[in-house]
Amino acid sequence: MLDAIEKLLILQDRDRAIRRVQDELARIGPERESHRARAAQSQARLEAARLRLRQLEADRKRLELDVESLKQQIERYSNQQLQTRKNEEYRALAHEIETCKAEIVRIEDKELELMEQAEQVQKEIVALTHESEEARRAAERLVAELNQREENLRRELAALQADREALAAAVEPSLRHRYERLLRSKGERVVVGVAHSVCGGCHMRLPAQVMVACQAQQEVVTCTNCGRILYYTPDMVLTAAD
């Protein structure tokens, strides 16, 4: 194999390693936010339950005040009954008293419903408090692991990039520029094999003269279809697949 091709293959391998590390680094941020979001959602559910409980307690307090107001109204009507001498007015006041009493019964039934709802929400809050605390601890642990992973990957990336610079500098400039151009347009598969008489990049059938040139290993050969740099090793089967 040509020395230039060997250098390019090593450079390509380093570029693939760099891409792998960069891809993994790119995934860390969203994954970290996902863990935090889950913890925040759990906390939000807890806060929503607490808000429901406060609202139920406020509604119950309002109903208690309504009952107290009705009791005071009943007391006023009763006092007025004692003072009136008219049967019609007495009966009207008695009707108002019965209406207030019926309303008190309705309100007290509603209070009971609210108390039952509040009891259920309190149980929900206990469960959600546990869930939220577990989610918070899990998020903190996972985020810490990701932060450490990110730090390790950044160190690995810095070392790979420094190594890559040295490897690239060892490649003849014009060939390096060709490789870099192909890297931008073709991705990480720039230097490819020619097994079964096809380009390892675009998988198109290669002309016989290109295969002969690859096997001779006297010059850098490129695919006539995609422009990728080709190489041949003795373990490759040159005959075309059926």
Regions with little confidence, pLDDT below 50 for 5+ residues: none
Count the DSSP helices.
4
Strand order of the largest sheet: 1-3-2
Here the CATH topology of the largest domain equals Helix Hairpins
Bulk shape: rod-shaped
Percent range of helical residues: over 70%
Distance between the termini: 27 Å
The secondary structure category is mainly alpha
Q: What is the count of structural domains?
A: 2
**CATH architecture label name of the largest domain:** Orthogonal Bundle
Structure write-up:
- The chain is mostly helical.
- It folds into two domains: 3-169, Helix Hairpins, CATH 1.10.287; 187-231, no CATH class.
- 77% of the residues lie in helices and 3% in strands.
- It has helices spanning 3-83, 87-169, 173-186, 208-216, and strands at residues 191-193, 221-222, 229-231.
- A three-stranded mixed beta sheet has the order 1-3-2, sandwiched between helices.
- Helix 1 packs antiparallel against helix 2 (87-169).
List keywords for this structure.
242 residues, mainly alpha, 4 helices
TL;DR?
With 242 residues, the chain is mainly alpha-helical.
SSE layout and pairing:
Layout: H1 3-83, H2 87-169, H3 173-186, E1 191-193, H4 208-216, E2 221-222, E3 229-231
Parallel strand pairs: 1-3
Antiparallel strand pairs: 2-3
Helix pairs in contact: 1-2
